[in-house]
Write a structure and sequence with these properties.
Malectin_dom; alpha/beta; elongated; six-stranded mixed sheet
Length: about 800
């Protein structure tokens, strides 16, 4: 019985549909409207279109989101089987003409949608005579002031002017659009205050003014919009505070206020607005605690309170029945143990607590245990959004497989990680998982064919990094927009760049910086690491477009990151010639350590790219040939195969250890061995410890003297070159009368480093040198210590006019 009734109903519906279709097929469009339609199409740039009397119902559906749409809707319920056009949709055709005044020749027209084209000009005055209810010109090139005569379009219920180039103030005449329900002005160049006349728009349900340059405070008159459901004010230019009158908007379901300037404000009263599904109060300088009623909103799906100064403890459980994700990053909440209830969240709720605690060194957030370092590094190479790739000898580690969506916190095994915050709103996907872009067809370096993106904040960090100065290279290429005469070229991506919490790029636009799309650009900045953490943060402050090529395309984008240590400067030893221009540096690579002696020098470059310090000695100066011999003597002092002399007044001898070891060695034993080695290489043989003393110092039973060179003393290596054999012999005989070599060493102020006397010319002297060297023979190093310092290479050349020493 039930089946029979349902079958009869279905037959009735099909019959009526067929009759209606036949009637519409018999109806025709008047010729004057056909002519007007063709004229309108040509005026907008569609020169190949040709409509006729049967064009009613013309429908070109889209398959993909970026496919063009064409739809001509007619009302055919007129006498004599006559139809009249009531709605036009010409969307995503890249029409490059103007908005046609000839539209007035379609007197029954109620709705016009010309979104996603390339139209210019402005809204024609003639349209005011039409009974238009809906105008959508989203994503075009309309410019100039918003026409004041729009106030005469009193039948309007929908007005979308988003993503154009309108400038100036909102006309007060728009306050007469009392039937208006949707009013969208985002991504223009509007300024001035919101006119108080807008308070009369009491039927508003949707109001958006994102990405503009308005002035003044958020007006109190918004309380008049009691039917408002969606309210967006992100980077509008308006300042806080959020008015208390917002509590009157009880019908709100989507509230987004972000990036407003104000000194400090408390959490706005939303206790009457319990139907919210999205609540975004980001970067509003809100302090205090989160009100308990927030966690009782039964329809809340998205909560973003990031980049404020909220404090206090997290609730015992952060969850509601509907919450999809919560972003509390960059706040001042109390640190909690990861095992506490507040940190034990359900798997279907993503919670972002990156930098959410009040601890200055915090990374993981209020629910992350303290992070410790087992080893320290000195570089970072990341291929953002891609796979591992080797560029110029360096391997960029890919993060393309990293997912996690709106509240992602990732830590790699190599002490680096990333945090991504926010949701790409309006893309109809509450649970995005892969925030990456991949355009392999682009004819650019593979490092730039992929990128990581983020809707709000994207932070890369490197933990356990050696303190010091670093060069940070950020690699970008805009791969979502185009560089042609289409609506895809209208996209604007703007974001800020922070390094070590310092703003280094404001409103950074990749396309502008690279002078085009799909073109690489690298921004180089210096950074100082003092707490073993380097942090690079890209932040979307609400500026730029959000709907090109589709909704939800905005926010930071980065292709790759490379971080290398800057040139390290060693302290100047007072007994040497020290000037501001001196290049007192050592240059380290993965395989060897090269020592540059302290001298007034300039930077040089070898053919293989090695940076060196160069000292030029002029034959016309007082330095002359004798100084050249001195420099050769210094080089000669460094030919020991395992140890290098590297004295630093700050005691940072551990830098002599081969960097290939990483942290896989005992630092105490290594430093002990270096100190003993330097004692063994003392310029004066008589001041070197004997073997039994060496063994005692190496096994830790004897204290190793810490001797600082006397700035007024002469380097004994130089003295040896300037002296003669008899002086050295007499000096040796005098020293042999002392009772303890180690005691003399402790009282000496002329300690310098070498691994033997400077060259002497006779066989006897060479024999004595070899004998002394055996007294300082290096014992076996601990098992965890490898080669301490690689060999030092030196080259020199001299001419009749100039002598050049390069080390």
């Amino acid at each position: 019985m039930f089946f029979s009734h349902r079958y009869a109903f279905l037959i009735s519906v099909l019959t009526l549909s067929c009759l209606e279709t036949q009637r519409l097929a018999a109806a025709t469009l008047p010729q004057d409207e056909v002519d007007a339609l063709n004229l309108v199409a040509k005026k907008m740039g569609a020169t190949s279109w040709n409509f006729n009397a049967d064009s009613c119902g013309d429908y070109l559906p889209r398959v993909r989101p970026t496919d063009p749409e064409r739809n001509i809707t007619c009302n055919c319920r007129f006498e004599n089987n006559t139809c009249h056009i009531i709605s036009l949709k010409f969307k995503r055709f890249n029409l490059a003409g103007e908005l046609p005044p000839e539209l007035v020749q379609l007197p029954y027209l109620e709705s016009i949608d010309l979104s996603y084209n390339y139209l210019n000009g402005t809204i024609p005055r003639e349209w005011a005579s039409l009974q238009l209810k809906s105008i959508a010109v989203l994503a075009n090139r309309l410019s100039g002031s918003i026409p004041s005569y729009l106030g005469n379009f009193t039948s309007l219920t929908y007005l979308d002017l988003e993503l154009n180039q309108f400038s100036g103030m909102i006309p007060v005449e728009l306050g007469k659009l009392v039937n208006l329900k949707t009013f969208i002005l985002s991504s223009n160049k509007l300024d001035g205050n919101l006119p108080k006349e807008l308070a009369e728009l009491k039927n508003l349900t949707d109001f958006r003014i994102n990405d503009n340059s308005f002035n003044g405070s958020i007006p109190e008159f918004i309380q008049n919009w009691k039917q408002l459901k969606r309210f967006e004010m992100v980077a509008s230019g308006l300042e806080g505070p959020i008015p208390s009158s917002i509590s009157a908007l009880e019908t709100l379901t989507d509230l987004r206020i972000a990036d407003i300037n104000f000194t400090n404000q408390s959490f706005p009263d939303l206790s009457n607005v319990m139907g919210l599904s999205r609540l975004l109060l980001r970067n509003c300088n809100i302090s205090g605690e989160i009100p308990p009623y927030i966690w009782e909103m039964s329809k809340l799906r998205i909560l973003d309170l990031s980049f404020n100064t909220l404090h206090g403890k997290l609730p015992s459980a952060i969850t509601t029945e509907t919450l999809v994700f919560i972003d509390l990053s960059y706040n001042n909440f109390s640190q909690q143990n990861s095992g506490q209830p507040a940190c034990q969240q359900k798997t279907d709720v993503t919670l972002n607590l990156f930098r959410s605690a009040s601890m200055g060194n915090d990374i993981g957030g209020a629910c992350m245990d303290d992070l410790t370092c087992d080893k320290y590094g000195h570089s970072l190479y990341v291929n953002c959004g891609g796979q591992n790739v080797k560029i110029n000898g360096s391997t960029y580690e890919g993060d393309g497989a990293v997912s996690g969506g709106a509240a992602m916190f990732y830590q790699s095994d190599e002490e680096w990680g990333l945090s991504s915050t926010g949701d790409f709103m309006d893309d109809n996907d509450f649970q995005n998982s892969a925030y990456t872009e991949n355009i392999p067809s682009l004819n650019i370096n593979e490092l730039y064919q992929t990128a990581r993106i983020s809707p709000i904040s994207l932070t890369y960090y490197r933990r356990c990094l050696e303190n010091g100065n670093y060069t940070v290279r950020l690699h970008f290429a805009e791969i979502r927009f185009t560089n042609d005469n289409t609506y895809n070229s209208l996209g604007r991506r703007l974001f800020d760049v922070y390094i070590q919490n310092k703003l280094v790029e404001k409103d950074f636009d990749i396309e502008v910086q690279a002078a085009g799309v799909a073109k690489p650009v690298t921004k180089i900045h210096n950074a100082t690491v003092t707490n073993n953490i380097l942090e690079i943060r890209l932040y979307w402050a609400g500026k730029g477009t959000r709907r090109i090529p589709v909704s939800g395309v905005y926010g930071p984008l980065i292709s790759a990151i490379s971080v290398d240590p800057s040139e390290k400067f060693l302290p100047c030893i007072p007994s040497f010639d020290c000037h501001d221009e001196a290049m007192n540096v050592y240059l380290a690579s993965r395989t060897e350590l090269k020592i540059v002696f302290f001298m007034t020098a300039v930077q040089g470059l070898l053919p293989d790219g090695t940076v060196i310090a160069v000292k030029q000695l002029s034959s016309k100066s007082s330095q002359g040939n004798r100084e050249f011999l001195n420099e050769i003597g210094v080089i000669s002092c460094m030919q020991h195969p395992h140890l290098a002399c590297h004295l630093e007044q700050n005691g940072n001898l551990i830098e002599l250890v081969d960097q290939k070891l990483g942290s896989e060695f005992n630092k105490v034993e290594a430093e002990r061995m270096i100190k003993v080695a330097l004692l063994c290489a003392n310029a004066s043989p008589a001041l070197r410890p004997i073997m039994s003393e060496v063994v005692s110092m190496l096994d830790g039973t004897r204290i190793i003297p810490d001797v600082i060179p006397d700035p007024n003393s002469e380097d004994l290596r130089f003295k040896a070159i300037r002296g003669h054999r008899e002086h050295m012999r007499s000096s040796l005989r005098a020293n042999q009368n002392s009772s303890s070599t180690l005691d003399r060493l402790a009282n000496s102020s002329s300690y310098v480093c070498t691994n033997g006397d400077l060259y002497e010319t006779d066989t006897e002297s060479n024999l004595r040198f070899n004998t002394r060297s055996k007294r300082c023979e290096q014992p076996e190093s601990p098992s965890k210590v490898s080669t301490l310092v690689s060999s030092v290479t030196a080259s020199s050349s001299a001419s009749a006019h100039d002598l050049l020493i390069s080390i």
